[in-house]
Here is the input.
Amino acid sequence: DVKVTQSSRYLVKRTGEKVFLECVQDMDHENMFWYRQDPGLGLRLIYFSYDVKMKEKGDIPEGYSVSREKKERFSLILESASTNQTSMYLCASRDPGQGSGSYNSPLHFGNGTRLTVT
Amino acid sequence: GNSVTQMEGPVTLSEEAFLTINCTYTATGYPSLFWYVQYPGEGLQLLLKATKADDKGSNKGFEATYRKETTSFHLEKGSVQVSDSAVYFCALKRGGSEKLVFGKGMKLTVNP
Here is the structure.
């Protein structure tokens, strides 16, 4: 079974702090994603990466950056945390694979990090 | 742009009741459609999917049919259980894109 592990379940940070959210997957997946989940807004894509050192902006990248130095690890960085970044953050990975069946292979999610910025 | 509209709830049902969660989409081309489920305290996991018109996805007693003419992918289950209590997300993935676009999610509570 694919395992996506997020390093913290709960995190409380102060406004202005630099925050690192870490995510590790154990299935050698090429693609990794960071979403935030907010009530009434669903999931929104922040950034994704399709290879080491490669990254693409999602729908709401402002205020965030990412790092992917190794294939299994994808970090989300809040350069200067603000209260409007209080949210549940979900990491996911996917194997794009090869062949027609792999195109719609599922996302595998971690259990999430609930970040509170005070 | 691509978007998904689904019932938001929350919805509370009694065990063995019939469940329908409506989902409609707007997309260019021919997207693939998904239902993901999030059990309490967990991340999302794929429930079922359909990749072309008239396909039916099914899993754990849930079903959804890809209806291109009505741009819908409604989720149904004939008899819900307490263990089905979760948040359900409809999603689409357009060809050529890695992005999965999610609906806002619907929280279902099933009481004994």
Q: What stands out?
A: The interface with chain A takes residues 8, 32, 34, 36, 41-46, 49, 51, 89, 93, 95, 98-100, 102-105 of chain B (CB under 8 Å).
